[in-house]
Each structure stands twice: as structure tokens, then as C-alpha cells.
Amino acid sequence: MRIAMWSGPRNLSTAMMYSFGARQDFAVMDEPFYAAYLRASGADHPMRYEILEAHEADPEQVGKNCGFGGAPHLYMKHMPHHMLAGFPMGWAADCVNIHLIRHPARVIASYAAKREEPSLEDIGFRQQLEVYKKIGGLIIDSTDIRADPEGMLRKLCHVIKLPFDSNMLKWPAGPRKDDGVWAAHWYGAVHKSTGFAGAEGELPDVSGASAEVLQQALPFYEQLLDNKM
């Protein structure tokens, strides 16, 4: 089985990768198109130089790499906004495609704490809806997972016909060999974790320029939310 988990940034995506990576039957890939996206877009992201030096930046080669299985399964963490026009998508046709969503107010607040006020393009809701409409798949909400990790992971495994493994609920603290080099900037909180955090509280207040981004993102998020598992 090859799982392609599609998610915007700051959305429980690394914790989900660690969850599947805690199984003995899964290999994982961390945002394999990130370097290709940076090279093609020219985007000025934290650690841009290090990412381009350390990771494959040819989208065609990355697509070929995504076409291989794992040992015996493969879990791939993907960001929809990394998939620029012309990037290969054929490899996703026989994947189990899952789309992980989170309320944009939470995404924006978390993103701004690590970089700066994001644009709509940075947080990927428009692109995530486009990918979902193109390839289909399941939609799951990170809020539901944090509220009931075991129940939601059992449900997800049942739907995709994968035996549930209780190892998915815990992992050792610290970095992983499969982390992208960008982990040094983005993964501080998850490296301190040993499992999923508890249920989320009230939505954060989003003001200033970010409030406009929130209003732009909400229609895309709500369309995805209407189709969640």
C-alpha cells in the first residue's frame, strides 16, 4: 500500500507521519516535492539553500521516487501547494489518497508563529481543494484526530483496509532519520512529543492582514469539510 497524505502546513501532518512511521510495516517520505517546489517557484522559505542542497529538486525524478512501494508499505507526506503546474501527478493514481484538513484560523496562527503572516498561497487551501477534485480520496479533520486519536485512526485504518496498529499512538521524542532537513526550523514541537496532543480549544483570534487571508481560505476549507470522513 502507498498512502499519499495531502495537507497544508501546520496541520498535524508531521505527527501523522510519525504515527505511521511508528509501525514496523511502513516506510515514510517527508514532503518529497519541497525542494522541487522551491527551485521552480523561487519561493524564499526558511532554510531554502539547505533544502535545495540536501533534497532532490527534479520533479520528474521525485515523481518516479513516489512510484515505488515501501517496506512493505509507504506513507508519503505531501503539501498540495508544492504541486506546481507541470509537476507529475500520475504516480498518485494508484495511491490511497487522504486529505488532512484543519480550520484555517488555527493554521494561520501556527504558521505566523514560525515564519510571518502567511498568504493564501502559503497555506495551501485552494491547492488542496484542487488536488482533491482532481484525484479524489478521503478527507479527515485534524481536530477529530486530536479529540480521539485511537478512535479516528482505527476508523481510518478500517476504511482503507489496513490493520490498526497500537504503535501508531506513540513514538519516541526527538528527530527522525526520514525528516526533511527543514525539520530544524519547523518541527520543534513535534520533536518534543511522544504522541498526539489533546483536544484543541477555542479558535484563535486572527487579525490584521491574516484576517483577510482567513476569509479567503474559509470557502475552500468548508468545501473540503463538507466531504470529511
Layout of secondary structure:
Layout: E1 2-7, H1 13-21, E2 26-30, H2 34-41, H3 48-54, H4 59-66, E3 73-78, E4 96-101, H5 104-114, H6 120-123, H7 125-135, E5 138-141, H8 142-147, H9 149-159, H10 183-186, H11 188-192, H12 209-225
Parallel strand pairs: 1-3, 1-4, 2-3, 4-5
Helix pairs in contact: 7-12
Largest sheet features: 5 strands, parallel
Give the overall average pLDDT. Answer: 94
Shape label: globular
Strand-and-helix sequence, N→C? EHEHHHEEHHHEHHHHH
CATH architecture descriptor text: 3-Layer(aba) Sandwich
How many DSSP E strands? 5
Residue share in helices?
A: 40-55%
Number of domains: 1
CATH superfamily: P-loop containing nucleotide triphosphate hydrolases
Query: What is the topology, as strand order, of the major beta sheet?
Result: 2-3-1-4-5
Q: Tell me the number of helical segments per DSSP (H or I, 4 or more residues long).
A: 12
Per the CATH scheme, the topology name is Rossmann fold
The end-to-end span amounts to 20 Å
Amount of beta strand:
5-15%
List low-pLDDT spans: none
Rg is 16 Å
In CATH's first tier, which class applies? Alpha Beta
What does the oligomeric state look like here? single chain
